[in-house]
Amino acid sequence: MYLSIFLTALLAATILPVQSEILVVAAQQQGYNLWWLWAVASAGNTLGSVINYVLGRYLLQFQDRRWFPFKPKTLEKGHWWFERYGKWSLLLAWTPFLGDPLTFIAGMLRLSFWQFLILVFISKAGRYAVLLGIMQLFWPQ
């Protein structure tokens, strides 16, 4: 189950339309260890964002191709967030629709990898901590 959660969380942080929260909540309801669920989901989701960062760093030259993962308008919106809030905008990496482009743009703008990793991990781990905390509070196992 932990491997499934890791892989689902990893894919959810890429451009693929995958939701990891459902699997994490299901595992919590089945009595899996909360700390392991949090750690595995956070690590997978962060690694998925690292993939976006690497793609942004090395694949921007292909943005005119049909297969390129982000539309120009999406990149423009993410770039605006980065211009306005700088690296701190990565604390929104957990958000749907905005998080993936932000992590891509961080790579595109060559933000320090370690700053990127720390901020994205805080964002992703925080989201899973809140999710699991709420589930434990209202539906304890």
UniProtKB/TrEMBL annotation:
Q: Which UniProt keywords apply?
A: Membrane, Transmembrane, Transmembrane helix
Tell me if Ribosomal protein is a UniProt keyword of this record: no
InterPro entries to which the protein is assigned, alphabetical? DedA_domain, VTT_dom
Record GO cellular component, one term: plasma membrane
Where does the record place the VTT domain? 20-135
Bilayer-spanning residue ranges: 36-56, 88-107, 113-139
> What is the protein's given name?
VTT domain-containing protein
In which organism is this protein found?
A: Pseudidiomarina aestuarii
